[in-house]
Amino acid sequence: MSNAVRYDYGTSLCSVQENRKLIIEDCDPDTINNELRAANFVREGSKFVKKRPRLRTRSGRNSESDALQVLSVRLVDDTLHVEPSDVVGIVRLVPGMSVQVEPKVDWEHVIQMLLTVYDIDRTQSHYGVPLDELVSSGVESARIIAILAINYVHGVRTIRREGFIRDLNIRRRDGFEGLGSIDVEQTLMNHATGNPAPTWIETQVEYANPVNSAVHMAGKLLLRLLQQDQNGHQHPRQDVLLSMVHQEVERMEELGIQSSQKEIGGYRRLSLRDLPRQRHYYRRAFHTSQSILSSTLLGQAGGGPEELLVDYALSMNKLFQDYSNRVLNRKVESLRQIDYLDQLSEVKCKPEPPIYPFAGNSEARHQPDHLLTDGDQTLAVLDSKYYQAGKNPANESASRSRMFAYAYLTETDRMAFLCPQYRNVRLPVQHTGAEIEVVSPDGDFTCEDYEEVIRKYILETLAITYPELHVFEATADAHLSLSGVSEDALSEVHDTNGPFSISNPATFADRVIAAIAFASYGPNKPELENQGQWTKSRIKEACTKSDEEDHPKYPQHETTCIPIYDPDGNDDHGTVTLHFLRSDQEGTSVSTEGPFPLM
């Protein structure tokens, strides 16, 4: 209870972090039940629960049974004990009071997750927006507005792709010039009555209807809310969001869709039941628009900055899972771009794949969050865990048992929990070769750090089967330095008679130093001590190295070498690292020698 956040009854906006408890004191027990019902809470046993429909219903479930629980409330004497789930947003508690649920991670990263999930952050650029036509006013809860804007744009784009609701108006007109098709029967009748003019059938498409107008009005209001206020507060990615919303509003106006502020009351009364059943793809845009239209909008009463009160919530658990899957696939694709041997063509990361433990029984199934697969082979099973800071999911019995079940059913020994706020840790499973890894950035969560540790885990997993990836990754981070050889030649990386042959170690060493000396990023030969002889000697010694039994460590008929130059490797002239690929009957192995400094 000591960790609970306390506010007095009547506070207009109460702030609490997700999964923390909020206590509202000095309530009136005689009226609070009716006030909760007025705010759309439903009684379930000894508590009141508020739910919101999910913007994306899971397959096989209807929107009502899969609704998202936002808040649960219990009345204890004259206090309300309010518990948010893993949601963020502003939710109306009782008339005149709202709860702002804050995320565990910074809002900046929540916005970045949304942009990544909807894949709308890399293709947008800021362009001229008529800011002088917008109403300037102070806006609190800027992050909620950003979430609304992202969902709005995603929803309207879906409508554009699937088709706006429209009416077809058919009009007939007589004349020698027209568009459309000719009504042959009526034209013949015209001729019979002495009128030689044909009758044209013209079809006019009309997009102006209350539903489209409501979405349009919400977009105009979003533009007002997204404008930077005079006090210097700014929304995350404001230029991108403003540009995106403005573009969608303009496109609707090009179709003739307009809206009037006088009709906001009518727009608010619309519901999904007013849509044809086949227009289910309107759900996200319509839900978001209703959230905007039902809020206390700014800049209309002239009373200065007001608070945006929106009954709107976003599931962070689901967002983190969707974000993780998008990152996983992006990192697989980025590694595919450096795969010069084209080995990763069938590698995928599947979201929530169903696994059926019993043949012929589709009712019993498991569903991990992510599976990394290569064709029919499962390389790793991964589960997203949006836990609070410091919590290790491997210590939780239920999560651990499910993970072991996933690994057993998919026949893989690599398992990973993806967490935002723990640390990277490896946990070998006793008496097996299996391993659970907690994949998490060290320190405070940022999207950049999280995406980097995801890439590292994917690379390590794929390199078990395709060890050449370590070499290709090294060339991407630094410079392949071998005279007469470009990165395109890496497709011949296993050819012992090809560009990476070490059959003549002295010549090979000369080619390494020559490539560095003639490159724009490397030192010239006169800058090196004895023209780089010391480094050449180290390269030759590495190529002719012997193992403990005095056998060649890198047999020339089985081994190739890829030299990588890092200009930042030391304070002087950089370093050279040699990557040896040895292929024999047991497969391919990668070893490194160095880094050797250029003296």
State the helix count: 14
Give the number of DSSP strands. Answer: 23
Unreliable stretches (pLDDT < 50, length at least 5) are 122-140, 229-233, 296-307
Strand share of the residues? 15-25%
The largest pleated sheet is described as: 6 strands, mixed
Widest sheet: strand order?
1-3-7-6-5-4
Plain-language structure description:
- With 599 residues, the chain is α+β, with helices and mostly antiparallel strands.
- It has 14 helices and 23 strands.
- It folds into 5 domains: 98 residues, no CATH class; 166 residues, no CATH class; 36 residues, no CATH class; 150 residues, Alpha-Beta Complex (tt1808, chain A), CATH 3.90.1570; 119 residues, no CATH class.
- It has a 6-stranded mixed beta sheet, with no helix packed on it. A 6-stranded mixed beta sheet has the order 14-15-16-17-19-18, with helices on both faces.
- Helix 2 crosses helix 9 and helix 9 crosses helix 11.
- The radius of gyration is 32 Å and the shape is globular.
- About 6% of the residues have low confidence.
At a glance:
With 599 residues, the protein is of the alpha+beta class. A six-stranded mixed beta sheet has the order 1-3-7-6-5-4, with no helix packed on it.
Which keywords apply here?
31% helix; six-stranded mixed beta sheet; McrBC 5-methylcytosine restriction system component; 599 residues; alpha+beta
Topology:
Blueprint: E1 5-8, E2 13-17, E3 22-25, H1 32-38, E4 42-44, E5 47-52, E6 68-76, E7 79-84, E8 87-94, E9 97-102, H2 107-117, H3 142-162, E10 167-174, E11 181-182, H4 184-192, E12 199-206, H5 210-226, H6 238-254, H7 264-269, H8 283-293, E13 312-315, H9 316-337, E14 347-351, E15 370-374, E16 377-384, H10 397-410, E17 414-418, E18 425-428, E19 435-439, H11 447-465, H12 468-477, E20 479-480, H13 505-517, H14 533-543, E21 559-566, E22 575-584, E23 587-597
Parallel strand pairs: 1-3, 2-9, 16-17, 17-19
Antiparallel strand pairs: 3-7, 4-5, 5-6, 6-7, 8-9, 8-13, 10-12, 11-12, 14-15, 15-16, 18-19, 20-21, 21-22, 22-23
Protein name: McrBC 5-methylcytosine restriction system component
Organism: Halorientalis persicus
